Structure formats: structure tokens, C-alpha cells
Amino acid sequence: MGRGGTFNPDNSSTWHAPSSYYSVVIELNLDYTARGPVANDTLTLGTGGPTLKNQAIGGLVAKDFYLGMLGLNPRPTNFTTGADASASLMTSLKAQNLIPSMSLGYTAGNNYRKLRHRSASFLVAANTLADTVFGSLTLGGYDNTRFTPNNVSFDFADNTYRDIVVGIQGISTGQSPDMLPDGGILAFVDSSVPHIWLPRTACQAFEKAFGLTYDDESGRYIVSRSTHTKLLNDNATITFTLGRTQSGGDSLNITLPYQSFDLSASWPEANVTGELYFPLRRAVNATQYTLGRTFLQEA
User: Fold this and answer.
1) Where residue 271 falls among pLDDT bands split at 50, 70, 90?
2) φ, ψ of residue 186 in degrees (nearest 5)
3) What is the DSSP-derived secondary structure letter of residue 175?
4) CB neighbours of 299 closer than 8 A, spacing ≥ 6?
């Protein structure tokens, strides 16, 4: 996957940095750490797209975040307690009447679909005959061709850093109907990380159902070549049942094929290129329960 080009702030006449480096507050609960230069600058979206002044832009000096990110939280950014806040990207777009609202729709997409695909979600869904389902980001609304109506809605949580929270009421496969043995949990939906973080007991249920091997040193789940072939031949799937709370009320099912979890490690995920791994992580406590981009391929 390409990372894009490099940016040298010394070449920007509009780069204004109140300070040199800041700690980046992204997934601190997962023990991710990053520092980098942060400043206000003029931002243009795409080639010939809208230009927005005084936008908070920063660099990340860390391996935990291999790809760049486009911040879509509508809250403003303060560099210091006494400085004026920088309006968010979404607020700036709305202020210039470039989007009708500060809502958005997103799906990570996937590249493993070969047949007609349709999936329902609280965010988006995809319906395509193409070989791949492309990622989609709609600012100011959502793409109704990628959305299947359902009876479940989710409120934003009070925690600024974990604001999109859903109840995982159950996880199941054809052979293992109860892969959340300790009951439902609340999980943060976060597109900035690739993995799914679940309780240890749930991870152990995945180990048994899919023949995964846990590597203590890296914290990754390794998949042998023979197990990989078997899971593909079996058309293995995993279904997540989501609701507003840990149990009860309206719910919906999101089903992911094994291909959603079929990943090959490379730097910076691992020093061994080509090692097959399953993007599941053991959470230390409830603050780490997270549904990352793996989940958003089908949701």
C-alpha cells in the first residue's frame, strides 16, 4: 500500500507552528504513542479541490500509524490553552457551504470480493458486481447505494477520544455459536487502527475455532499455510451481532468472511515479510475493546 509523498514544512509559506512537537492523542488506550510537528497551514483537498486556511496539520513520528489520516471529528483543535482554536476540516467545509451538513458515511472497502456482494451496516453497505469493493468516504451525507436501512441507531459517547461506541452482543461462526463467552461488550469503532481488540476469552474462542497460534513476543495471531488453505476451502465466516447496548433491544448482524482477516505481514507490522496473520488482538481491559478497519471492510 502506498503512503503518498513527503511534505517539507520549510517549503510552505503558510506553515505556522506555535510549538515544535506534540504528543498525538490517538488510541492511547491501546498503548499507541506518537509525536510529531503540528501546525496550522493551508490545505487543498485533491487536485483542484477546495482550499481551506488555518487547518491543523501534523506529522507522525511512529511506526504504529503507517498511513496518514484525515481528521473528520468536528471539534476544533487547540495547540495551547491560551491560543485561539483552529476550526476542524468538517466545520471549515460547512462554513464555506461546501457540504450540506457535518455528517459523513464511510466504508473501508475490500479487495477479495469476486461475486455479487451485499452487506448491511449501521454505517454503510456495499452492492457491487466488481472484483473489488472500493473504499468510500462521503462528506456532508452518505451514499445511499452503499447503505441498507435497519432499525438500529447509535448515539455518540461522552468520551471525546472514544466517541463511536457500539454494543457487541454476540460473535459466532458456523461451528462456534458463542465466541463471546463472558457476555456482551461495548467497543469503539476506529478506522485509524487495523485490528479488532477483544477480551482474552473471546480471543481464545477464535484460537479454537480457526486454529490460530498466538505469538507472545509480537502479540499477533499467526496462521499456518495449511490452516489458511482449510479456512479458505471451508468458506469460514464470522458474524458480529451489534446493538446499542451489550444485550437486548434491536440488533443487526455483520458477517465477515475469513478473507477479511487474511493478511500477510510486512514492515512495520512485522520484520518477517509474508507471514500470514489474523488481525485480532487481546485486550487488557474494557477500554481497549475496538473494532478497527478489518471490521469496516464489511460494515
Assistant:
1) low
2) -105, 130
3) S
4) 107, 119, 121, 122, 123, 124, 254, 291
Alpha carbon distance 37, 42 (integer Å): 15
Q: How far apart are CA 2 and CA 32, in angstroms?
A: 22
Q: How many angstroms separate the most distant Cα atoms in the chain?
A: 60
pLDDT at 120 over 60: no
> How many other CB atoms sit within 10 Å of the CB of residue 298?
26
Peptide bond into 268 cis (omega under 30): yes
Residue 281's Cα: distance from chain center in Å?
A: 14
Nearest CA-CA partner of 290 in 194, 223, 204: 194
Q: Residue 38, CB half-sphere, CA atoms under 13 Å: how many?
A: 15
DSSP string, 81-142: TTSPPBPPHHHHHHHTTSSSSS-EEEE--BS---S-EE---SS---EE-SSSB--EEEETS-
CB 110 within 8 A of CB 298: yes
Question: Is 50 exceeded by the pLDDT of residue 54?
Answer: yes
3 state SS of 186 = strand
pLDDT tens digits, one per residue of 228-269: 999 999 989 999 999 999 999 999 999 999 999 998 887 766
Do residues 205 and 181 lie in contact, with contact meaning Cβ atoms separated by under 8 Å?
Answer: yes
Helices and strands (DSSP H and E) totals, the chain: 4, 18
Q: How far apart are CA 179 and CA 49, in angstroms?
A: 46
CA 251-252-255 angle, 5° bins: 145
Provide the pLDDT for residue 20.
67
Q: What is the mean pLDDT of residues 60-64?
A: 72
